[in-house]
Amino acid sequence: MAGVIRRNKDFHQVGTGWNVVLNLIAGIFAFLCVFPFLFVVIISLTDEKTLATDGYRILPAQWSLEAYRYVFQSGDMLLRSYGVTIFVTLVGTVISLIMISLYAYAISRNSFRYRRFFSVFAIVTMLFNGGMIPTYMVVSQLMGLKNTVWALILPLAMNAFYIMILRTFYSTSVPEAVIESARIDGAGDFYIFLRIVLPLSLPGLATIGLFSTLGYWNDWFNALLYIDVPNLVPLQSMLMRIESSIAFIQQNSQNSSLSLTALQSIPQDTSRMAMVVLATLPIIFAYPFFQRYFVQGLTVGAVKE
Questions:
Q1: Which of 102, 106, 203, 304 shows the smallest number of beta carbons within 10 Å?
Q2: Could you tell me the mean pLDDT of each successive run of 10 residues in the chain, 305 residues long?
């Protein structure tokens, strides 16, 4: 009996030691993942002259907010761009979730007669694309969305890959017996979907919602194609235009003394890092709201006991 107790004690000590080692490895890995962004924040708060003389350092000799002052010189335009991006992200994510969840639920049910047709239809769009010019003609001329906020929302609302993920989640996580019992009780399709399927599908919906949120927040290409009105320029597109202005001054600095003077007054490297911080920070704060269901949603289709 004493030998069994001793072996259990030794096993417990070994297990505790491995837990410490594994937690240490996980902590180091997490730090390595977070450190690049922290370093970007440090660079954005570094004085431009100090950065030019000392290079990149974790603890710079002189701190400065000049990069953020330069970016915020646009004033109301930057705040307006933030507002446009937030509106597009929120409305676009809601519309995307509604359309994708309804489409995926329909093709996940074996009772749907045209299930195979619409599944193949979605998969084909993943493999073939009409091209940039036809897409531009449809959005700007046929639908008349040019220089409207809907040109930033509707082209990204549907995604075939997200449909396939959510369809798999419905098929594996929503028991068919529950749906059949609800039908026997007289429930309709929309009642079943809203009251039974959606509450059971929160992990999958949170995963798709996070992907859609990231897609809308980081989108700048649609604004480049369809937006010419300054009031509708989103954040990513505006930061890209600021970066283009800096690059233009750099290229023409040798041809004009005025450009050279302007170039010397611009915090070039630190302003780029400040743009990265301004574009990334809000979405970092949004991630914890999805984290509760995100890991569970990523295990869609996993083997279950």
A1: 304
A2: 53 66 89 88 85 81 82 75 90 94 90 88 86 88 90 92 90 82 82 86 86 90 89 84 67 56 61 80 74 56 43
pTM: 0.77
Q: Do 200 and 173 form a contact (C-beta atoms < 8 A)?
A: yes
* The two structure tokens encoding residue 25: 């490895």
Residues contacting residue 151 through CB under 8 Å, at least 6 positions apart: 139, 140, 145, 222, 225, 226, 227
Domains belonging to the chain, first-starting first, are 74-298 (1.10.3720.10)
Distance CA 227, CA 124 (A): 29
Query: For residue 46, which phi and psi values (nearest 5 degrees)?
Result: -95, 145
Q: How far apart are CA 195 and CA 186, in angstroms?
A: 13
Alpha-carbon distances of 278 from 75, 114, 243, 285, rounded to whole Å? 14, 46, 13, 12
For 144-198, what is each residue's pLDDT tens digit? 899 999 999 999 999 999 999 899 888 888 878 888 888 888 888 888 888 888 8
16, 139, 200 from 28: Cα distances, Å: 18, 47, 35
DSSP string, 174-232: S-HHHHHHHHHTT--HHHHIIIIIHHHTHHHHHHHHHHHHHHHHH--HHHHHH---GGG
The CA distance from 61 to 160, in Å, is 50
CA distance 116 to 43: 53
